[in-house]
Amino acid sequence: MAAKTPASEVRMSAHKPVEKTLPMEGLRTFRGLKIFSGNANRPLAEGICKYLGVPLGKAHVGRFADGEINVQIEENVRGADCYLIQPTCRPTNENLMELLILIDALRRASAGRITAVIPYFGYARADRKTAPRVPISSKLVANLVVTAGAQRVITMDLHAAQIQGFFDIPVDHLYAAPILLDYVKRKNLKNLVVVSPDVGGTERARAFAKRLNAQLVIIDKRRPRPNEASVYNIIGDVRGKACFILDDMIDTGGTLVKVAEKIRENGATKVYAACVHGVLSGAAHDLIAKSSLEEMILTDSIPVHALAGGKLKVLSISPLLGEAIARNHQGKSISALFV
Questions:
Q1: How far apart, in whole angstroms, are the C-alpha atoms of residue 162 and residue 173?
Q2: Which residues are tagged catalytic?
Q3: I want to staple 68 with a disulfide (CB 3.0 to 4.6 A). Which of 52, 55, 64, 311 is the partner?
């Protein structure tokens, strides 16, 4: 059979996130540490490498002429401690397959240890059966990552914390809260309240409010169908307050915009929002641009293009992930990062 002809490699567009560098513990050297990236978020991988002061590993991740993924690790990894940066964001299935094939390539190249760094874990919303005869897709994806050969996972702000238990390998579950908190504190907002857009996010919002010495407001909403929500009640006082809506992700933006409008109608002076993962599907950019939000704060766990009427602010998580990788590589505790 004739060999397939490799097609040109697909790359995601670069962006320039706002970042705050975490202090490194003196000058550190990393022997045997190698970091690789698929095409999902190469700028983030480059930011992590810059923080650590190590080069990005050489790997070809392209496509054959028929669309199949073509991977080759282009340097020696035998016995090395390898970290693979690959969020499973849109196109989800493409990026997931890249992750699995890269893991397999590293395993067959005799890598000493393989850690999958998945800043955004796709299929996380399918974490339980919500109706008869539906899959638990996040468990399936966890099984695939383990079967491919990953020995550890580093991830961030899972949609459901119990997903950690879906993996039969160690999982380091990080939170972007320190980066978001630092940014909000520097804004010096008066009469601030933190808003949870649903009951499920109350714990996250409460912890955030505690660190800002702010009050907590909870939105009572219903989801008649996926990606659609109706706001019923606001639990708490927002009149005359600067409100900060906190969530783990924004997808279509419809729910967030409705929450912001409802808060405005109830007397809020300003409304800000922060989400760790900017999925931004469909008309999300237009909805945010036309909304009553003052600013939409995201991280670069997923590549974000600065549209939405200039309302988007992107903060980099590369220092946080870089610090987790450094401590994990050196066998140090990373519990201080689980905040």
A1: 11
A2: 221
A3: 64
Strands in 81-85's sheet, in edge-to-edge order, are 33-37, 81-85, 113-118, 152-156, 171-174
Q: Are 33 and 324 in contact (CB under 8 A)?
A: no
> 137-173: per-residue pLDDT in tens?
999 999 999 999 999 999 999 999 899 999 999 999 9
Torsion sign, CA atoms 195, 198, 201, 203: positive
Q: Average of pLDDT values for 184-208?
A: 91
Tally the residues of the chain. 339
AA letter at 125: R
**Which residues, other chains included, contact 184 with Cβ-Cβ below 8 Å and sequence gap of 6+?**
192, 212, 244, 272, 274
The distance of Cα 55 from the centroid of its chain, to the nearest Å, equals 23
What are the structure tokens assigned to 317, written together? Answer: 């998580």
> Which string of b and e fits 64-89 if b means at least 16 CB within 10 Å?
eeeeebbbebeeebeebbbbbbbbbb
Q: Which of 1-5, 265-269, 292-296 has the lowest mean pLDDT?
A: 1-5
Each residue of 109-146: pLDDT tens digit? 999 999 999 999 999 999 999 899 999 999 999 999 99
